[in-house]
User: What shape does this take?
Amino acid sequence: MHGINGTGPVSRSALAIALALGAMAQAAHATEDAATTSADGARTGGLAEIVVTATRRESNLQKTPIAVSAVDSSRIAQAAPRNIADIAKFVPNFSAAELPGFHAASYAMRGTGANNIIVYYEAPVAVLVDDFVMPTIQSQLLDTFDIAQVEVLRGPQGTLFGKNTTGGAVSVRTIKPDLTKVSGKAEASYGKFETFDAKAAINLPIISDQLALRVVGGYRSSQGYMRNGFNYGPVVAFAPTKWAGATGSGDGRAIGGERIASGRAKLLWKPSETFSTELQYQLLRDNSPVPASVNLTPKGNASYLFNLLGVGASTGNDLYKLGGITNRIDRFIDQKHGSKVSLDGVYSNTDIKLDVGTITNVIGFQSERDRLSNSYTGIAPVAPDGDVLSLFDAQRATNRKTFQEELRFASAFDGPFNFVAGGFYQHDSVDFCSAAYVGVNELFGATTPWGSYNDVPLFQCSRQRQNSEALFTEATYKITPELTLVGGFRYTWEDKAWQGRQQVAAQQIGIDPETISIMSLSDFSKYPQGVISLKTKVHEPTWRLSLSYQATPDVFAYFTYSRGFKSGGFNDNIGSNNQFGDDLDAYAAAAAATRPEYADSFEAGIKTEAFGRRLRFNLTGFYVKYRDLQRQVQVPVVANGVPAQITAFFNAASSRVYGIEGEIQARPIDNLTLNAVLGYQNGRYQNYTPPYPAGYDLSLSPLDRTPEWQWTLGANYVIPLGEHKVVLDGDVNYVGRNLYTQSISSLANNTYLPARTLFNASITLAEKDDRYFVRVIGQNLTNKTYLQGVQSVDPLWVFGLLGRPRWFGAQVGVKW
Assistant: This one.
């Protein structure tokens, strides 16, 4: 029997322990430079130096005046993550999840995050791969194979990384080709839920010391850990004949799962020590089954109409057996063949080293095509005659093309002054259409002139063209050998043009639906009926000022003030069921772009090492003031006499968040490495005045995606065995309760992710030089039932996405 499990508040003693360790670290002095590995594969000495590129040049993590966490390839390997979201546990105050109904990233840091799939919504945590900004959350759940390092920068990064980094930035560095030798590696794993994963990389020098190719590929599949076992009914209240007596009785088959192929080819040309260029091609083919939703409508809550209609939450206690998918297939929706994402990208990174510095050019083009189907209620009604009915089945289709270029110069002067300066350009083109079967309307006695809502698709289409340019610089001046001043400034110009049509049946604009494809109605030159055009333009400065002090060779302290902004966006999720009728002015007002959102951050940190680099302790305190917050609220509406809801966005709030972030890494004895991560956040609204009427003060709700406490404790122990070694690795991770979706109808209808604690472990038998290994992996060992995301579709229903239950698997690998 399962329920949504959590744990109580974390003791404040964790903070006291962290502060005590920090004081101990400041009192000691390092005597060794780096970790070493003995002939039998044992780890000896202190911790290795960590090099990051958070300042757009290489620097020692312990001397970088930014709150940045680095997760290297060895830690990633031991954790065996499914994707980049699984490494969030190694970073304080970094929350990573997936959106309910989609294979899409939902990242949050320091009081701000993403919790919706709207294609024009700009997420506040940027993700970059080899300096190319990934433009959509649908492609940010990156595979972690053949990654050299992941750097997570916390807090606004508006100077060097630009817009949409008010929460922070995730910078992924993939492994470069090796010019000197043929090499490769391969891994395969199999586990519970028929999870299969195979990956390989091969490195081929073409011209010795000048030209090399590295090719990486992988495939992942799984059966899915949810079951199609919804069970409720019969349908009541206002139900016409077709729906009267309908019930839900799933077939019990596994649903969800994955079918993902990915690849990367990197060609490195380095004809001299002063010039190098890397050309990269990336592909992703995600043909995964439809993500499995579970209906979580609170039983007995009369404010949710699904309860009154007899289609509320399923009966039963094991939520993993209560998923619901209709598997509907027709011309505009194809749930049987999954939720498809196809991505192709071509990028190049060029460095020219001069006596005075390095010129870097990053240029790339990415094309993404999404066809995302789902039953967003987590319910699949079955009529008495056996026909499957659609309460709300939809397919979202998106075609997106993005071009980017960044040209920058990083000086290498001998004196106290150095700087980074450059320019950035991005063009982003999006075409979007959705087709929805809103059978729930029939439960209120509504029909269309062309047939039942269960059979007549409703289309909502829009498109956007965006240009963004920026100039930036950041200068460093050593006032004394120990005291350093950093000042940075960026100016961004952004133009967006949007066109859209509210949700209509094709027949309403004189089109036979049998003659069109799902994307054809986004061709507004061919079908201009009911289309509105909007534009928005912003010019925004961002800046950073930092003062750092190297108190001793092992103690580094800094203070930083920075400003960041998150771009405004249009809303593609209004105008449901032709809500505004022929009043296009009202529709335009509702669809208009929000203004930018701003973050002013004050941050102080100390970074220390001690006992011959046996102990590393970093502690950060921060205070962030947000204004013109872009808030998402589910607003109940009545369209054509039928209760419904829209997702509304508006600038109506300001908030403040303060907290601490601690990271400890220790090697008390050879072969044993201990890790601890602690994050604390206190966030609240200072005002919250949406333009919609409400029966309560919205500021009484907590900030969404802001758990008060997060922490991870981990250990890694190496046991030498002659020519082999055994590696024991484990961690426990806690994330506190946090709001996911805010309701405008009732505080009681807010949806939360309950607190959860997860235990993970692995045992590895490897050759001492890691030429081959066998690993046994266990994740969520206590079998906690927990939520990754949950949406309140107020006033109709609630649905969510469950995290994976207890999982065991085995992995083998070889490298040469």
